[in-house]
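This section describes the prediction task in plain terms. A model, or a person checking by hand, is given the sequence of a single protein chain and must write out its three-dimensional structure as a string of tokens. No templates, partner chains or ligands are provided. The sample shown here is typical of the held-out split.
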Amino acid sequence: MNKGIKIIAILSCPKCHKLQSAKMFTDACQHFYKCQSCGEMLKPKMKDCCVFCSYSDSKCPPKQMEATTV
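The expected answer:
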């Protein structure tokens, strides 16, 4: 794993706006995530690869790595 790649993200639920910490996959995008507070099933926004790219404080590790190699 590259140094500087975040694997823990803070997700913000678009329905209840609660913040929750979640571990991200280092080798794949996560397409669904169930909010721990309200039960809303999060799905990526259009043009985003995963829920982390749409609703968290950090892009997913694959996108982070892509940005460091460009």
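For orientation: Residues 8-69 form one domain.
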